[in-house]
Design brief:
Belongs to the short-chain dehydrogenases/reductases (SDR) family. Pfam families: adh_short_C2. By secondary structure, the protein is an alpha/beta fold. The protein has a single domain, classed as Rossmann fold (3-Layer(aba) Sandwich). The chain is 44% helix and 14% strand. It contains 9 helices and 7 strands. The chain has a 7-stranded parallel beta sheet, sandwiched between helices. Strand 5, helix 5 and strand 6 form a beta-alpha-beta unit. Helix 1 (21-32) crosses helix 8 (221-232), helix 3 runs parallel beside helix 4 (109-136) and helix 4 runs parallel beside helix 5. The longest helix is centred in the middle third of the chain and has 28 residues, at 109-136. It is globular, with a radius of gyration of 19 Å. It binds nicotinamide-adenine-dinucleotide (NAD). Nicotinamide-adenine-dinucleotide is lined by residues 17-23, 41-42, 67-69, 94-97, 118, 122, 145, 147, 190, 192-193, 195, 197.
Length: 271
C-alpha cells in the first residue's frame, strides 16, 4: 500500500509495544509515510535499535522505555514526547503480555493479571496521556489493538479474550467521550498474523491457523500496519468507535462448502 499520500509528513505518531512484531512493523510504516515516530516499549535497547534502523532508512524516531501499566512511566513518556516534538497526532496502543493458553481452571492467575494489566490498564493509561497531548494540538487519532479473540470467544484463551474484549469496550466508551473534541478512537482486531510467535510455533500450527480463516492464509504484519495508518489518517476522518477486523473473513461467520448446499456429500475436512 502506498502510504505517502496519507498526510503524515510533519506529524508525530506513537507506537506502544513497538519493539517487535506488529508494533515494530507499524512504527516502520508510520516512518515510511513521513511521520516522526515515538517507539515505546519496556526494553530501551530494543526500541533504541529500531530507532537507529528507522533513522538509517531516512526516518525520524524517538525511543522511550516504559511499562504501559505504570502510571508514572506513561505520564513521563508523554511529557518527553511533548518536550521533544511539541505535539502528538496519532497513537497505536499495541502492547500485550500474559499467560500461556490453558482451559480456564488451569490458567495461571499471575499471567491472567499481567494480561489484564498490560492490555486494559496499559491501553487506559496510554489513552489518558495521549488524549491530553492531542487535545493541546487540537485533535488526533488513536488506534487500540484488540484481536478477533476479543470479538469471538477462543478456547484456552479466557484471559486474553477478556483483556481484548475489555479493550473494545474501553475504546468505544472513550470514542464517545471525545467524539466532539477532534479525537477519534478506533480498534483493530486481527486474526492470525505471521509474527515471530507463529513462526516459532512451526509449520503445522501455521497451516491450521491459516485454514481457520475463510481466506485460508495468515495475515501479514504490513496488512495490519496499513489499516492502523489508514484509521489514523484523515482518510478516516468520519470514523470513530469502530472495531475493524483484519482477519481474512474469520468474524464474518461460517464458510459452508458450496457442494453441501447442492445436496452433494460434504468435501472431506481439510487436514
Ligand atoms: N500476532 C497475532 O497473530 C495477533 C493476532 C491478533 C492480535 N494480536 C495483538 O497484536 C499485538 C502485537 O502482537 P505481536 O504478535 O506483534 O506480539 P509481540 O509479543 O511481538 O509484541 C508485543 C509488544 O508489546 C511489548 N510489551 C509487552 N508488555 C509491555 C509492557 N508492559 N509495557 C510496554 N510494552 C510491552 C513487547 O515488548 C512487544 O514490543 C498484541 O496486542 C497482540 O495481542 C496479535
Amino acid at each position: 500500500m502506498n502510504t505517502n499520500n496519507l498526510g503524515f509528513a510533519g506529524k508525530v505518531a506513537l507506537v506502544a509495544g513497538a519493539s517487535k512484531g506488529i508494533g515494530a512493523a507499524t512504527a516502520r510504516a508510520f516512518a515510511q509515510a513521513g511521520a516522526s515516530v515515538v517507539l515505546l516499549s519496556r526494553s530501551q535497547p530494543a526500541v533504541e535499535a529500531l530507532a537507529v534502523s528507522i533513522r538509517q532508512a531516512g526516518g525520524d524516531a524517538l525511543a522511550i522505555a516504559a511499562d504501559v501499566g505504570d502510571e508514572n512511566a506513561m505520564k513521563q513518556a508523554l511529557a518527553s514526547v511533548m518536550q521533544h516534538y511539541g505535539r502528538l497526532d496519532a497513537a497505536f496502543n499495541n502492547a500485550t503480555d500474559g499467560t500461556m493458553p490453558a482451559p480456564l481452571a488451569d490458567l495461571d492467575i499471575e499471567g491472567f493479571d499481567r494480561g489484564i494489566r498490560t492490555n486494559i490498564r496499559g491501553t487506559f493509561l496510554g489513552m489518558r496521556y495521549q488524549i491530553e497531548a492531542m487535545a493541546r494540538a487540537g485533535g488526533g487519532a488513536i488506534v487500540n489493538m484488540a484481536s478477533v479473540a476479543g470479538i469471538n470467544g477462543t478456547s484456552g484463551l479466557s484471559g486474553y479474550v477478556s483483556a481484548k474484549a475489555g479493550i473494545i469496550g474501553l475504546s468505544k466508551a472513550a470514542a464517545l467521550d471525545y467524539a466532539d473534541q477532534g479525537i477519534r478512537i478506533n480498534v483493530v482486531a486481527p486474526g492470525p498474523i505471521l509474527t515471530h510467535h507463529l513462526e516459532a510455533a512451526g509449520a503445522d500450527i501455521q497451516r491450521h491457523a491459516a485454514l481457520s480463516t475463510p481466506m485460508r492464509r495468515l495475515g501479514r504484519m504490513e496488512e495490519v500496519a496499513a489499516s492502523v495508518l489508514w484509521l489514523c489518517s484523515d482518510a478516516a476522518s468520519y470514523i470513530t468507535g469502530v472495531v475493524l477486523p483484519i482477519d481474512g473473513g474469520m468474524t464474518a461467520g461460517t464458510k459452508v462448502p458450496m457442494n453441501y448446499r447442492r445436496g452433494e456429500p460434504p468435501r472431506p475436512a481439510e487436514p
